[in-house]
Design a protein that fits this description.
Helices cover about 50% and strands about 20% of the residues. With about 325 residues, it is an alpha+beta fold. It folds into 2 domains: about 140 residues, no CATH class; about 130 residues, Immunoglobulin-like. Strands 3, 4, 5, 7, 9, 10 and 11 form a 7-stranded antiparallel β-sheet that branches. A hairpin with a 4-residue loop joins strand 9 and strand 10. Helix 1 packs parallel to helix 7 and helix 6 crosses helix 7.
């Protein structure tokens, strides 16, 4: 009997046909899932565009950024100039930021300062990561990464004079100062930060709501794509954020380390804490790897989407 005759031949053909049929079904299911994922990604991108257009200052869990508000007077009167310039000065090695000072075409020459401090063996120069300095109505504001110890340099165009204060230490995350400029060229600076401003509740509420929006959206897409129970997982993701965000906002900024290191620490904390919290309550629905992936995605999206909102608010 030949191999092509009988039930062996028919069985092999049936297995091959069944295999191709299952392969086709798998591909159709994959294509369907990809189509759904594309639709969800479109929704995410559209939401980001809307937030960039409408946001008024919340930074999501990019993390809180220090702010410095400075009120200025000249001879005990408001400064007459409708606009003037200022720079926060930090003490650096000269070679560290000299190139940045020379390349900063937006800063007037009078504020491109480099003064040697013999006691500290460093140079007082414009802080490269302190955003701001376009002042108006006797007020200046700085943000992003202002130095923890600084001097303020102020240039008043109508007087054609530059004033530099003594150094002062920034102890609060949201700080406010009063600078008094005198006709003799001297300048004094004193802190006037209120307790309410140092707590920064309004900023926290805005950042909390924006973070929740991003992480709920990402979680909804994730559980929908994985065909997991939505309500319970969404509930515990919300609970994890309610517990972790206050620590990120009010405890981690107290760590006396460079800001970039602090950001890395609190992002790692957020991912690990949320992973273990969600997994503890959802282990029957999510594996540990799935939970870790979800937490990492949530924090990645809120970090960079919040950064996009922050940059949009600062510059647009």
């Amino acid at each position: 009997m030949r191999f092509t005759d009988g039930w062996w031949h028919r069985s092999i053909l049936r297995w091959v046909n069944d295999g191709f049929h299952l392969y086709g079904l798998a591909h159709r299911k994959t294509d369907c899932r990809l189509a759904k994922m594309k639709k969800h990604l479109f929704v995410v991108c559209a939401a980001l565009v809307v937030l960039l257009c409408l946001s008024s200052g919340a930074k999501a869990d990019l993390g809180p950024k220090p702010t410095v508000d400075i009120d200025l007077v000249y001879n005990h009167q408001k400064i007459a100039d409708t606009s003037f310039g200022a720079k926060m000065l930090g003490c650096y090695d000269q070679e560290l930021v000299q190139n940045e000072i020379e390349q900063d075409q937006d800063t007037v020459a009078q504020l491109r300062i480099s003064r040697f401090d013999a006691d500290a063996q460093c140079y007082w120069q414009p802080a490269p990561m302190a955003w701001g300095g376009s002042c108006s109505e006797s007020h200046c504001q700085f943000s992003y990464f202002p130095p923890s110890e600084f001097r303020l340099a102020v240039y008043i165009p109508s007087l054609d004079k530059t004033f530099v204060t003594d150094k002062i230490t920034r102890e609060n995350f949201a700080s406010r100062y009063r600078v008094e400029l005198s006709a003799d060229g001297s300048a004094t600076i004193n802190e006037t930060t209120s307790l309410w401003a140092s707590i920064r509740i309004p900023d926290f509420v805005g950042a909390f709501l924006l973070t929740i929006f991003f992480e709920m959206l990402v979680t909804w897409i994730f559980v929908t794509a994985q065909k997991l129970p939505r309500k319970k997982i969404l509930l515990y993701v919300l609970g994890a954020n309610v517990l972790s965000l206050p620590a990120v906002w009010f405890l981690f900024p107290l760590i006396d380390l460079p800001e970039l290191i602090v950001i890395a620490i609190f992002e790692l904390f957020a991912v690990l804490f949320e992973t273990y919290f969600i997994y503890h309550f959802c282990k029957q629905m999510l594996s540990f790897k799935q939970t870790l992936l979800l937490s990492a995605l949530n924090n990645f999206v809120s970090l960079f989407a919040g950064g996009a909102v922050f940059v949009g608010v600062m510059f647009f």
